[in-house]
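Key result, reporting period 2: structure in, sequence out.
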């Protein structure tokens, strides 16, 4: 029975194609065409035709397929019934299952490079959809519903408060964007960072920290986040803790140079007063090249210069 129906449908479509009447064939399966939508959705139409999706000269764009109906599905029935909410048209709802939510977009964008890892992204697995961040008609910058970082702060309030701290990456200032470091559509790196490792990410902008150094400080090579936080800190230079406590979380505080109250005469006469070591930049007063040094052995090996 079903087979028969399919065959006859197939046959009638074939006939009309053969008759050179593709347009009529589309109407048969319920497409109305974008000019019909325009009559009642003028505003959306006008924005849409100016945007990338609405431009015929872009191959593969919805404009080159069924226009509005590339995403909303066949709309003839919707039109026949005079339009209206919930009337015979594909819509996008928060209540849809995650897979359905983004499927229209993915039908064209599964091969877009920056969308390649969508399936393994945390956003997808937590039901965030393409249209939570992108509009589909209002083609401003990348169809974004708001500019970064405001777009991301809507959901990531903890990151907003971090980036209000005294020391922060210049996100609010607009010098860098969340998406310089993360791919919101997913990436191989942990936490969707746009590099294979945290260090590789940091080197893309802080190349001078890559070395190679004659004298390397092992925690630096291992992971910048041994000492830094990525978004914001109440301590200077995005440090996780204040110096000297930062250093002392790995270096025995009873050893050189110990605490403020230690006597330092034993320390090869280099320091005249123990207080020097805890003053202002503390350990960094002397160990100034903390990321590594190419200085001569005597001093370089301890990053004194
Ligand atoms: C690329 C896919 C896509 C195309 C093409 C598209 N839309 Fe949409 N449309 C959406 C998505 C996604 C939503 C949900 C909007 C949201 O939540 O931001 C939507 C929402 C809507 C809505 C209801 C919400 C609103 O903004 O009023 C209307 C009406 C609508 N579209 C009409 C149209 C018309 C008319 C066209 C053609 C001129 C069109 N759409 C083309 C994806 C598309
Ligand atoms: C005769 C007028 C008319 C035409 C033609 C028309 N629509 Fe609509 N459509 C409406 C009205 C009215 C609404 C309800 C709008 C509202 O409440 O803001 C609507 C709502 C929609 C919605 C949102 C539905 C929902 O449940 O949220 C979409 C999507 C939509 N139209 C797409 C289309 C597309 C695509 C076309 C062209 C194939 C089209 N419309 C043609 C009148 C029309
Ligand atoms: C019918 C195919 C098709 C569908 C469906 C589609 N797109 Fe596109 N989209 C394209 C093409 C083609 C381009 C231009 C080339 C490119 O960037 O891949 C594009 C470009 C984009 C861009 C880049 C715009 C810019 O300013 O550079 C974004 C963002 C985008 N689409 C998001 C979406 C979202 C979100 C959806 C679902 C609501 C969607 N697309 C559905 C075909 C489609
Ligand atoms: C959490 C927010 C978010 C979600 C969810 C999201 N995107 Fe994006 N998308 C962005 C941002 C931000 C950019 C712009 C990045 C930039 O400026 O480099 C972007 C860029 C794009 C681009 C342009 C890529 C390019 O290389 O120019 C496309 C296409 C795109 N997104 C498609 C999608 C599709 C399809 C989905 C759903 C499967 C999706 N996005 C989900 C935030 C998001
Ligand atoms: C300078 C690069 C950089 C910028 C800019 C940046 N991030 Fe991150 N982000 C990171 C790194 C690195 C991590 C941690 C990766 C790890 O733990 O391996 C991270 C982690 C995260 C996490 C996971 C947090 C957690 O505790 O697990 C979220 C969410 C996040 N970032 C959101 C954002 C948002 C939103 C923005 C923009 C407001 C942003 N990031 C800007 C580098 C950056
Ligand atoms: C609609 C809400 C929403 C928006 C908008 C949003 N996110 Fe998310 N994001 C989430 C949720 C939910 C999670 C999972 C919980 C968490 O880690 O905080 C998440 C997780 C993340 C993670 C951690 C990924 C991991 O592997 O653990 C990063 C990084 C991230 N988002 C970056 C961004 C960036 C960058 C933007 C803006 C372009 C953005 N998000 C916009 C909801 C959102
Ligand atoms: C997209 C480029 C970019 C990436 C990637 C990046 N940074 Fe930055 N970073 C900046 C910019 C821009 C500044 C501000 C420089 C200035 O004010 O002179 C900055 C400043 C800093 C500062 C000094 C902050 C202060 O308060 O003075 C530290 C520390 C830092 N970054 C560490 C890191 C670490 C660790 C990573 C890797 C997780 C990283 N950065 C990745 C661009 C980047
Ligand atoms: C052992 C702890 C430690 C590790 C690990 C570390 N840093 Fe730092 N970093 C510091 C300290 C301490 C300062 C403050 C130096 C100062 O004030 O002179 C600093 C300052 C910075 C600054 C701002 C001042 C400057 O020198 O440009 C940047 C940028 C920076 N670090 C990037 C990185 C990057 C990138 C990595 C990973 C390759 C990294 N750091 C790993 C301790 C560390
Ligand atoms: C995450 C742990 C960690 C942190 C934090 C850390 N270091 Fe180190 N540091 C090491 C390791 C591991 C070595 C190598 C020890 C070795 O070779 O015996 C080292 C070596 C050193 C050396 C050379 C020791 C030697 O015997 O050659 C100095 C000096 C030093 N660190 C100073 C500092 C200072 C100053 C800070 C704070 C800004 C700091 N370190 C923060 C782990 C850390
Ligand atoms: C007044 C200068 C000065 C200050 C301040 C200082 N150091 Fe040193 N540090 C040195 C010198 C010089 C050496 C090399 C000593 C040697 O050759 O034995 C050294 C050696 C070290 C070593 C390797 C040898 C050892 O004793 O284990 C470590 C680790 C170290 N310092 C950590 C720190 C930490 C952590 C701080 C801050 C709490 C700090 N230093 C503050 C001058 C200083």
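The corresponding designed sequence is given below.
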């Amino acid at each position: 029975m079903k087979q028969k129906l399919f065959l006859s449908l197939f046959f009638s479509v074939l006939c009309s194609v053969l008759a050179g009447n593709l347009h009529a064939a589309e109407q048969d399966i319920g497409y109305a065409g974008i000019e019909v939508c325009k009559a009642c959705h003028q505003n959306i139409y006008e924005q849409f035709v100016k945007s990338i999706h609405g431009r015929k000269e872009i191959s593969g764009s919805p404009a080159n397929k069924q226009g509005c109906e590339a995403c909303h599905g066949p709309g003839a029935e919707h039109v026949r019934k005079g339009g209206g909410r919930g009337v015979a048209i594909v819509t996008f709802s928060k209540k849809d299952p995650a897979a359905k939510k983004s499927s229209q977009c993915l039908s064209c964008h599964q091969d877009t490079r920056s969308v390649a890892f969508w399936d393994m992204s945390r956003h997808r697995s937590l039901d965030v959809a393409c249209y939570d961040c992108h509009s589909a008609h209002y083609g401003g910058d990348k169809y974004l519903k708001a500019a970064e970082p405001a777009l991301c702060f809507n959901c990531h309030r903890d990151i907003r408060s971090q980036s209000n701290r005294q020391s922060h990456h210049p996100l609010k200032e607009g010098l860098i964007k969340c998406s310089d470091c993360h791919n919101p559509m997913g990436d191989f790196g942990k936490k969707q960072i746009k590099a294979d490792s945290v260090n590789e990410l940091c080197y893309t902008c802080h190349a001078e920290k890559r070395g190679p150094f004659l004298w390397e400080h092992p925690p630096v090579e291992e992971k910048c986040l041994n000492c830094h936080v990525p978004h914001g800190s109440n301590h200077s230079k995005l440090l996780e803790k204040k110096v000297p406590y930062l250093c002392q979380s790995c270096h025995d505080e009873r050893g050189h140079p110990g605490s403020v109250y230690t006597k330092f005469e034993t320390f090869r006469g280099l320091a005249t007063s123990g207080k020097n070591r805890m003053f202002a930049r503390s350990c960094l007063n002397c160990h100034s090249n903390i990321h590594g040094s190419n200085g001569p052995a005597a001093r370089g090996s301890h990053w004194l210069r």
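The CA atoms of residues 79 and 289 lie 71 Å apart. The pocket of heme C (ligand 8) is lined by residues 199, 202, 206, 209, 217, 219-220, 224, 226-228, 237, 239, 243, 284, 290-291 (CB under 6 Å). This case is discussed further under Risks and Mitigation.
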